[in-house]
Amino acid sequence: MSATSxxxxxxxxxxxxxxxxxxxxxxxxxxxxxxxxxxxxEHFVRDGESETVDGCEVAVFRWTYRTRIxx
Length: 71
Hints:
This protein is mainly beta. It contains one helix and six strands.
């Protein structure tokens, strides 16, 4: 992971998304994450919460809602 990336954890939403090891650019910590999943997008936001995982601080993003891809 580069110095400009921050490790994150997804809370809520589809279990298979939460299990993935992820990171985002540090500048995106205040933004909504929109992750494509199946026929839609899962949206996650950060409220400033962090936790320690394996001795590293991880930013927590919580699931807020799902949108479908327009056809």
